Amino acid sequence: MRQITRLASIAVFFLAACADDEFIPPPAIDAATDAAVIDTTDVDAADDDAGPDATAIDAPIDAASSVMVVACPGTPDLEIGVNGGGTAYMPSTGTISVNEIVRFTPGDPNHDLVSGTPGSADGLFATPLGQTTCLRFTATGTFPFFCTVHSFTGTITVN
User: Fold this and answer.
1) Superfamily of domain 29-158
2) Which residue would you say has higher pLDDT here, 121 or 24?
3) What b-and-e string marks burial along 62-99, b requiring 16 or more CB atoms within 10 Å of the CB?
């Protein structure tokens, strides 16, 4: 009987030690880190600036000809963020050349960058909420985008 009591006490101790009602969410995934892990097509090439030979990462098939998600370079050609009040993109417009890279840095988990206009996404690109993402534009044109949470808008022009 003494052994059963001792085993029961030990079991209760371990169960109590493992019990914790505080939920700690997993760390956010950085797009640059995630992209570097996923993009293993050419592991011998040290392409730190994600040049024109960068491979599309999780890019929608229909977007492959005009926009690709790529590993973020140290210095992108255009940086788009969100203003301090969380009410507008900064800058809201930008002009780049074909094959240049735009880095979207949302600043908090409540912003994304989706191609199209509010209520009418066109499917060319969409960044995850709150995640820094880099996009390479491989065709000329005007690319409108918006935040799905707050509906503010912007435009990237590619020459």
Assistant:
1) Cupredoxins -  blue copper proteins (2.60.40.420)
2) 121
3) ebeebbbbbbbbeebbbebbbeeeeebbeeeebebeee
